[in-house]
Specification:
The complex is a heterodimer of chains A (about 325) and B (about 1200). Chain A is built from twelve helices and twelve strands. The mean pLDDT of chain A is about 90. Helices cover about 40% and strands about 15% of the residues of chain A. Chain A is globular and about 90 Å long. Chain A has about 325 residues and is α/β, with parallel strands linked by helices. Chain A has one domain (about 10-320): TIM Barrel (Alpha-Beta Barrel), CATH 3.20.20. In chain A, α7 (about 225-240) runs parallel beside α8 (about 255-265). The longest helix of chain A has 18 residues, at about 150-165. In chain A, β6, α5 (about 150-165) and β7 form a beta-alpha-beta unit. With about 1200 residues, chain B is of the alpha/beta class. Among the domains of chain B are: about 5-210 and about 235-255, 3-Layer(aba) Sandwich (Rossmann fold); about 260-415, Rossmann fold, CATH 3.40.50.920; about 420-620, Pyruvate-ferredoxin Oxidoreductase, domain 3 (3-Layer(aba) Sandwich); about 895-925 and about 935-960, no CATH class; about 1000-1185, Rossmann fold (3-Layer(aba) Sandwich). Chain B contains 41 helices and 37 strands. Chain B is globular. Chain B starts with a strand and ends with a helix. The relative contact order of chain B is 0.05. The mean pLDDT of chain B is about 95. The chains are: A alpha/beta (about 325), B alpha/beta (about 1200). Chain A: InterPro entries: Aldolase_TIM (IPR013785), DHO_dehydrogenase (IPR050074), Dihydroorotate_DH_1_2 (IPR012135), Dihydroorotate_DH_cat (IPR005720).
Chain lengths: ~325, ~1200
């Protein structure tokens, strides 16, 4: 194998290559994390801790404790003492601690907050547990028509700012594509304190059960073509922000990784393809990237990164084109 | 060493000591002793060591009889062993207690003393249970307060080890077991010093050990038994001294001195009360008050009732005594007097043999049965009686006996509680957190301030919408007022609608503070108050405040839990602590309680505290009442006489005022009374959309309270219907073309189960179903009118219905309605179904448990009657004997029927041979044939009347027994799988025609969710806090093994048609039938509104396979085992995690949860495999050839 330097830097963390295992069931146990490390993952993002879930569960246990308790003389409660039940983040924090103890590669925690206090509270707990960085998995469904897009964006910015003030470890924000001006908003997030952006968050869209006529949760793995959305916006953002960028959603091969790096990503996040093909697909992807770089005369990832950003690419109009397939043809020479 | 204080209840106070000083603890749930077992099990599961640094083994047995057996065995093997019990439980221990005492085995049984069931069951406190144990040879030691119970538990343990005489340590059920009081804790060093290691070793040396074998438990003959029995005498002779020495040693270590008999009051008293237990608290207050007014009165508290030390007793009495009144908290009908009275008379007589002064006069009386209040004023009345010239012998106090005139009169105004005691009373709902908040308040003040605190809580007998009344006292002095608050200086009403239902201000002292939670502000509230409330506010000059706690709780996302808000208001208004100090303690308590539940819950509660103080408003009270609204009558004014006179008083909370003559002499009550108790506890009720309905009948079938009804009727009757009465008209109906579904709006609990199971959804708006839950306030008037019309519509002719179909079965009138069961109860729909199908000829034997409580706890019963006055006849015997009780009913009914048949045969020619033949030969299969038989019996009775002979009169009286009676034996899994299993098994083997239905919740629901042998593997339950680690007992398969028993496993929510079929097959089988009915329960930790549909998932997972084993199919070529559910199609874990009982273990011990869940799945797989094989098995039932089935 040719001597190609795959090292890169993400959120100020030195990575031996640009492949990061993103949040998925594969990063949920130390055993599996060790497997990822052996397979060559440069860093891992642990599955998201969902504050809403924790709070819901706590509330449920709280209610359970209270439900019908102290109501009847013969049965003042219905469950063994609930004090000893762990409905909090302890299991998650233990995973961070165990991961830090067992792995040499950076461990990035991921948080999906819900209350303003919760983002800070859980973020701090994760930092204390030893996480090298924190990925904020922000997603609100603004169903209230009186809430404007600028309200939503302001809320996101304030949130990042408040967590930033609380923590010392670097923050990444995993943002969704559904903003009127993703480039502006991405820049705003960086200004608010994000050390990096992860493009783009894939959201769980509910499915309809035709038997019960109810919405049911459904998760689908990403498809390679989804990457193209991220490629465009990474290329656009790359020249506008001084922060790390990771591509996520649809990176299924080494060639996909090459594309992401070309437009300006510092690293790529992978999950679906590993869930489909197994963790041992990671070296295959790595080899594909190396082979492509070798064949095309690149000797380092640093060289590759951003070489096709909007400023650096040869046909930026290709990025701007929104609706039509046919390229614009010029019949004269520019004067 | 400085004393460490704690605020806890009597059960915990005792359990702490028992746990610390024992190695094996055998437990079984029984109110009010259950919490002691729960504490012990919880501590053991958490790995808490005892005084010898070992973790006590806590083992749940199948009954108290079993617990006593295990106690005996463990003691024989040399372990320090204890158990906890009460009432019937103690009775089941009696045989072993004679053995344990006869063998001089040191041990202590702790008893929360409770009434024995006689004319009725009662869970409340008196001494009838411990008095039934007084011949066992156990020493009997009485504690009269939480502190004493804590202390004497240790004294008992120390004394029994020295004396070798086992001790029964008792304290009053509820009054002491459930009272929270601030006590001084015994420190571990004291425990160590009190328990002599040498004595423990001696106990171990006496144990059964193959290295030094002995024989114990021999059978003895007339030659030696008597002498051997007398050989124990020296130990009993020594016992009183030992007990006193241990009390003295305890006093040296703690400063708290107890005596076998303690005397308080005047040293020169002429009048002395003698009593034991919690009543001493009230009596002591009375004695002190009388002496302050110049009286010469005393109280002798009996702590050691057995052995009864005559010398110490006499020495404790003041020499000046002239009159003694002995108060017994038990009744021994037919005796010269109650036990304590008899002992005192004997002791005094013996002592005065050698004295020349006149013997004091001793009178005896009863008080406080079943936790009847005993107040200082009552004690004063007894003292007054002593002074009378001819005092009543064998009086009662606390009731009005207008039959045998034994009761003493008393006047509560004779006694006022001291000024330094703050007395606060709170009215709340079980679900609003009032009691929890008050317990918290008692703890905050008890543990953070020098104040002494006491909390006592009164619950009603309903499971849904239960009302709670909290009685809290705070004082700089220790509080031993063992009675409810009579005059409160703070009254809080946490639910606005109570104001119209009960007189919450009756208890308010003049000048008291009244805090009302209501949606109105200080300006608006006055006009919404009933006149009676307005009048009392004015007359008593109450300081009246309002708070909108509901809104504050909602704004701070605390849901319906208004506890934090109301607690803050109490601190702000009561002045029991300076407000800033109170705020500090409350905030601290919030952080401690909710800290580990994350910042959000803490933030919300802190915000609610802050918002509450700012939102209290003082009401400016007008000069005179102005309201036209009045307190509602407890029952409708057109209710039957008994309901108005008696039931209504109980409903209104004034049952204490009923005289003896108002009550039946033998515990017999009318049925059908729940209909008069309009509880109105739902916020939302189901409203029917006739256009969408598909007439499946499911809503009515699953309704736990029979509050959704269906009727098919002649559409001509619609002429009198209220306007827009919803109805579906069938084309070409046979005269009964109209169908309606109607809610009983005031009886519905709002559980929502009917809406959840409704399969008919609107095509245009999916969330809209054929019934929707809608706000009751908007629909009450109209639905009340509609229900009134519906109720008077005739029921359809039962003989015309196809009762194999759910929709037709639901047209039958339920004769089980409006029970007080939990909203969404999983048991009651089965009982209601039985009552619809067989209710008019049904006799029920009901095991003690939830079903006996919602079925038979006064004031009302859901068992009711049809238009002909027929309906289920119901009785509860005990917990352990229900199968036998039901079999006895069958035997009795058959005996009566056989006599009727014999008489009819004898009179055959006189009454008409054809008619007699038809009656004697009738098979009575189905509704039509039963109706024919009834008609024939009517004819028979007419002819018999004209005969007038003795045999004719006798036959006329029992002719109705010739109509087939349906005997149902009803109970839960605690009964069927555990305590009653022996009897159940015997009845299954009897071959007699009884129907057994097990309402299987998989836990002891009524006592709060303790594990039974029906509890599934991997579930947590009380007494299985670590998760149950064995496969649930397959009771059905065990019964199938008989081959001659009809067995079915059913789950109404999963397959209503299978349930209906199985119930009918079981009833029609002329032999024993066993139905195992899956019943969801709040103890599962589930959403009760969706619990019926959740049953589908449980069946799909294979957790609860549906099957029917019909012995009638057991003949050549047939397979009697019918597996009705499909192969499991869902992983059990997926379904189980929707229930907190399984999910909790995953949260507390994930590793163990994983292991148990894997085993639980294997249980399911294996059981399914086994049942599949059973379904292919051919069997032969030899009984089939003998009987016509």
């Amino acid at each position: 194998m040719t001597n190609i330097d795959l090292s890169t830097s993400y959120l100020g963390l030195d990575l031996k290559n640009p492949f990061i295992a993103s949040a998925s069931p594969l990063t949920g146990s130390v055993e599996s994390l060790l497997h990822l490390e052996r397979a060559g993952a440069a860093a891992v993002v642990l599955p998201s801790l969902f504050e809403e879930q924790i709070e819901h569960e706590r509330e449920q246990f709280e209610q359970l404790n209270a439900y019908q308790s102290d109501s009847m003389a013969e049965s003042l409660s219905f469950f063994p003492d609930l004090e000893r039940y762990n409905t909090g983040p302890e299991e998650y924090l233990q995973l961070i601690r165990d991961a830090k103890e067992s792995l040499c590669i950076p461990v990035i925690a991921s948080l999906n907050g819900f209350s303003s206090g919760g983002w800070k509270y859980y973020g701090e707990l994760m930092e204390q547990a030893g996480a090298d960085a924190l990925e904020l998995n922000i997603y609100l469904v603004p169903t209230d028509p009186s809430v404007s897009s600028s309200d939503v964006e302001r809320h996101y910015r304030e949130l990042v700012l408040s967590v930033r003030e609380q923590l010392r470890i670097p923050l990444a924000v995993k943002m969704g594509p559904f903003f009127s001006s993703p480039a502006t908003f991405g820049s705003d997030l960086v200004e608010s304190g994000a050390a990096g952006l992860v493009l783009f968050n894939r959201f769980l869209s509910p499915e309809i059960d035709l038997e019960t006529l109810e919405f049911v949760p459904a998760l689908q793995l990403s498809q390679p073509e989804e990457l193209r959305l991220a490629l465009r916006w990474i290329a656009i953002l790359r020249d506008r922000i001084q922060a790390s960028i990771a591509a996520t959603g649809g990176v299924h091969s080494g060639l996909d990784a090459a594309k992401a790096l070309l437009v300006g990503a510092d690293a790529v996040m992978i999950a679906s393809t590993l869930l489909k093909h197994g963790i041992d697909h990671l070296p295959v992807m790595r080899n594909e990237l190396v082979q492509w770089m070798d064949e095309n005369g690149y000797f380092s990832v640093e060289q590759l990164k951003g070489s096709m950003s909007m400023d650096n690419c040869s046909n930026p109009e290709g990025l701007k084109r929104a609706n039509y397939m046919k390229a614009l043809t010029s019949y004269t020479t520019k004067v | 060493m400085q004393d460490k204080f704690a605020t806890l209840d009597g059960n915990e106070a005792v359990a702490r000591v028992a746990y610390a000083t024992n190695e094996v603890i055998a437990i079984y749930p029984i109110t009010p002793a259950t919490p002691m077992g729960e504490f012990a099990d919880g501590w053991s599961a958490a790995g808490l060591p005892n005084a010898w640094s070992t973790i006590p083994q806590v083992v749940e047995m199948q009954s108290e009889g079993g617990a006593a057996g295990a106690l005996h065995g463990s003691l024989q093997a040399g372990a320090l062993t204890t158990t906890f019990t009460a009432s019937q439980g103690l009775l089941l221990m009696l045989p072993n207690m004679f053995k344990i005492a006869g063998e001089l085995t040191p041990s202590v049984i702790h008893v929360a003393a409770r009434s024995l069931a006689t004319h009725a069951l009662s869970i409340f406190g008196d001494h009838s249970d411990v008095m039934a144990a007084r011949t066992t040879g156990y020493g009997l030691l009485a504690s009269s307060s939480v502190q004493e119970a804590h202390d004497l538990a240790l004294v008992a343990q120390a004394a029994t080890l020295r004396a070798r005489v086992p001790l029964l340590h008792f304290f009053d059920g509820f009054r002491t077991s459930h009272e929270i009081n601030k006590i001084r804790l015994i420190d571990p060093a004291t425990v160590e010093q009190m328990i002599d290691t040498d004595l423990v070793l001696q106990h171990r040396e006496r144990s059964l050990d193959p290295d030094r074998p002995v024989l114990r438990g021999t059978a003895q003959n007339p030659d030696v038994f008597f002498q051997a029995r007398e050989a124990v005498n020296p130990f009993y002779d020594a016992m009183p001294d030992i007990l006193q020495e241990e009390m003295d040693r305890f006093a040296e270590l703690t400063g708290r001195q107890y005596k076998l008999f303690d005397y308080v009051g005047a040293a020169d008293a002429e009048h002395v009360l003698v009593m034991m237990g919690s009543g001493c608290g009230a009596a002591e207050e009375a004695v002190n008050a009388l002496n302050r007014d110049g009286g010469r009165v005393g109280l002798l508290k009996v702590r050691a009732f057995r052995p009864f030390d005559v010398d110490r007793f006499i020495d404790t009495l003041p020499d000046s005594v002239k009159q003694i009144a002995v108060l017994d908290r038990t009744k021994e009908p037919g005796a010269v007097g109650e036990p304590l009275y008899q002992d005192v008379v004997t002791a005094v007589t013996q002592a005065w043999w050698s004295r020349s002064v006149p013997i004091p006069r001793v009178i005896g009386g009863r008080y406080g049965l079943s936790s009847k209040e005993f107040t200082p004023a009552m004690a004063m009345a007894v003292v007054r009686e002593l002074a009378a010239e001819a005092p009543k012998q064998h009086f009662t106090i606390g009731i009005h006996d207008d039959v045998t005139l034994q009761s003493l009169a008393w006047d509560e105004a004779d006694y006022d509680e001291p000024e330094h005691v703050t007395r606060a009373v709170f009215y709340g709902l079980g679900s609003d957190g009032t009691v929890g908040a008050n317990k918290n308040t008692v703890k905050i003040l008890g543990e953070n301030t020098p104040l002494h605190t006491q909390g006592y809580f009164v619950y009603d007998s309903k499971k849904a919408g239960a009302v709670t009344v909290s009685h809290l006292r705070f004082s700089p002095e220790p509080i031993e007022s063992t009675y409810l608050i009579r005059q409160a200086n703070f009254v809080a009403c946490h639910q606005f609608n109570f104001l119209q239902q009960r007189d919450v201000l009756e208890i308010a002292a003049p000048g008291a503070t009244f805090l009302l939670n209501c949606p109105y502000d200080a300006e608006a509230v006055w006009d919404h108050l009933p006149e009676e409330i307005q009048r009392q506010i004015i007359d008593k000059n109450l300081q009246f405040y309002v708070i909108d706690a509901g809104t504050i709780a909602r704004e701070n996302e605390l849901g319906g839990r208004i506890n934090t808000v109301m607690q803050t208001c109490f601190f702000a208004l009561s002045g029991v602590l300076p407000m800033d100090e109170a705020m500090q303690h409350m905030q601290e308590a919030v952080r401690n309680t909710y800290g580990k539940r994350g910042p959000v819950v803490v933030e919300r509660n802190l915000a609610a505290i802050a918002a509450s103080t700012a939102s209290i408003q003082k009401v400016t009270v007008p000069d005179k009442p102005s309201s036209t609204v009045h307190l509602l009558p407890p029952v409708p004014l057109d209710s039957p006489d008994f309901v108005q006179r008696v039931t209504g008083m109980m409903i209104a909370g004034k049952g204490d005022l009923l005289p003896v003559s108002a009550l039946p002499v033998d515990g017999t009550f009318p049925t059908g009374t729940a209909q008069y108790e309009k509880r109105n506890i739902a916020d939302q009720i189901p409203i029917w959309d006739a256009d969408l309905c598909i007439e499946c009948g499911l809503c009515a079938m699953v309704c736990p309270h029979a509050a959704i009804r269906t009727k098919r009727f002649d559409e001509a009757l619609l002429d009198q219907a209220p306007e827009a009465f919803p109805v579906r008209i069938a084309a070409g109906g046979n005269g009964l073309a109209a169908l309606t579904i109607q809610v009983a709006p005031e009886d519905c609990t709002g559980c929502g189960v009917c809406v959840d199971v409704c399969p008919a959804k609107s095509k245009e708006v999916v969330k809209h179903k054929a019934i929707d839950m809608l706000p009751k306030s908007e629909h009450l008037e109209r639905e009340r009118e509609r229900f009134g019309f519906f109720d008077q519509l005739p029921d359809p002719d039962r003989t015309t219905l196809n009762t194999t179909k759910v929709k037709d079965a639901q047209l039958m009138l339920p004769l089980f309605e409006y029970s007080g069961a939990c909203g969404g109860c999983g048991e009651t729909p089965y009982l209601k179904l039985l009552s619809q199908l067989f209710g008019d000829r049904m006799v029920v034997a009901n095991a003690t448990g939830c079903s006996s409580i919602y079925g038979g706890n006064l004031p009302t019963t859901p068992w009711s009657t049809n238009a002909q006055g027929r309906g289920p006849a119901w009785s509860n015997s005990l917990f352990e004997d229900n199968a036998e009780f039901g079999l006895g009913m069958r035997l009795g009914l058959d005996g009566k029927r056989e006599r009727a048949r014999a008489l009819l045969t004898q009179l055959r020619d006189q009454v008409d041979g054809t008619l007699a033949g038809a009656i004697l030969d009738s098979k009575q299969r189905g509704e039509a044939e039963i109706q024919d038989q009834r008609d024939r019996i009517d004819q028979l009775k007419q002819r018999l009347a004209s005969l007038g002979s003795q045999p004719a009169l006798e036959l006329a009286a029992i002719a109705d027994s010739l109509v087939e009676r349906s005997v149902w034996i009803v109970g839960g899994d605690g009964w069927a799988y555990d305590i009653g299993y022996g009897g159940l098994d015997h009845v299954l083997a009897s071959g007699r025609n009884v129907n057994i239905i097990v309402l299987d919740t998989g836990v002891y629901s009524n006592t709060g969710g303790q594990a039974s042998k029906a509890t599934p593997r991997a579930a947590t339950a009380k007494f299985a806090a670590d998760g149950r680690n064995v496969h649930r007992k397959d009771l059905g398969a065990m019964a199938v093994a008989y081959g001659s028993v009809y067995v079915a496993q059913i789950a109404m929510g999963a397959n209503p048609a299978q349930t209906l079929r199985a119930v009918q097959e079981a009833e029609s089988y002329d032999g024993p039938s066993l139905l195992l009915a899956y019943s969801h329960c709040i103890a599962h930790g589930i959403d009760m509104s969706t619990a019926m549909t959740h049953q589908r998932d449980l069946v799909r997972s294979g957790f609860w396979p549906l099957y029917r084993y019909d012995p009638r199919d057991a003949h050549a070529g047939e397979h009697p085992f019918h597996l009705d559910s499909r192969k499991p199609s869902k992983p059990f874990k997926e379904v189980a995690m929707q229930e907190a009982r399984f999910a909790m273990l995953a949260r507390s011990k994930p590793e163990r949860a994983r292991e148990l869940m894997e085993l639980a799945q294997k249980d399911i797989d294996d059981t399914w495999h086994y049942y599949q094989q059973l379904a292919g098995v051919e069997r032969d039932n030899p009984d089939l050839q003998q009987t016509d089935v």
